[in-house]
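A note from the maintainers: we've had questions about how concatenated examples are separated. There is no special marker in the raw files; a new sequence line simply starts the next protein. For clarity in this README we add a label.
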Amino acid sequence: MRLGTLLLTGAALAAQGLVAQGHPALSWERVLPLDWQVGPGSPPAKTLADPVASTGPLEARVTGDGTLSLRDARGIIRLKTGLPGRPLKAWRDGGCPLASPSGAWSFPADTPLSQGLGGLRWVAEDFRPFLRGLLWILEDGEGFLTVVHPATARIEYLPLPPGRDLRLRFLPDRLEVAAGDVDRGAPRQWSIPWIGLLPRLAALGPHADRTKPGTALVPFPKD
């Protein structure tokens, strides 16, 4: 059985258990697992320059207790929510490490993902520049990597492989995770190509507003 299938089965059973107990599943408990590949993968063909941190009029703020808030250029809060746990480590854009997992950082309003999937080049030798404008947060439970896109005020939760003391590497072609402590016999290193994150990245992009405007005769249209 592949690791992805095993994790998917476990997630489905866990969700059923929550429903059976009468507890609604939290947003990060409803996401499907990723198809992590065991092992580090092949080394990059050549060394490429590290991504450069972006800047802009938007602000993302994370507090020590795991509260995330996003503000637009006018200072209006567009989103305020809680993380799966307290922030442990954080990166921005295509993997630029942040000195502290809590704080406030500026982000651009125009990013590759804000243009939808048409703004991404999957065949690029280095995909990390197309992750500009993202905030990545590892929480202290080390079960999820929260990905925040301030330009659209959207969030995705990436389930991580089992392990403790996780270390992440943002490589040109993939995201790599290594664990410092695992159960006996369990793998210590996993990776997933950026294209394998396509559905999660697509969800961070702009969504069409399908709400039909009302009229004086029909103020609340049904379709």
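[label: protein 2]
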Amino acid sequence: MGSAEKILVSGAKELGIQLAGAELEKFKLYSQLIKYWNEKINLVSCPSEEELYRLHFLDSLMCRLGFNFRKNCRLIDLGSGAGFPGVPLKICFPELEVSLVDARKKRTEFLQLVVDKLHLKKCAVIWDRLENLGHKGEHRGIYDCAVARALAPLNVLLEYAMPLLKQGGKFLALKGFNIEEEIKEADWKR
């Protein structure tokens, strides 16, 4: 096991996620696909494999702290881009029903390739704008959890996520450390 895999295994263990050989193989293939396609369509910033595993894969798994990913749970990844956090979550929780959404055609083509090559079942790729998705009946109020990472200000993300969630559903926004101003702008008291 290389140093990148060790970072992922040890970090995942701290989050209560046990990674076996099958999951690690999927992460390895995913890493190779990202590296290859990153040269074509600039998916992510990751100078080294260790940083890819720590800053993108492990960071995506932090969602585990905010939601109990159980069998047959429906998850939507808003603005999935290179597949973060949806693909790492799907690898670790294969029973999840995942929808990966992005407005850029080339990114959705990449995501479909990832889904196919990693044999991710119950994983859909949606090419659409987030502002349109909440108006479509097939997506309104059906998801148990919505996730977003490095996409938009919190108040905008809430407008995208809320129509998609079931009653009692959760929205997880992976944000940086300076979130206080975004929380004020989102006006959580309403």
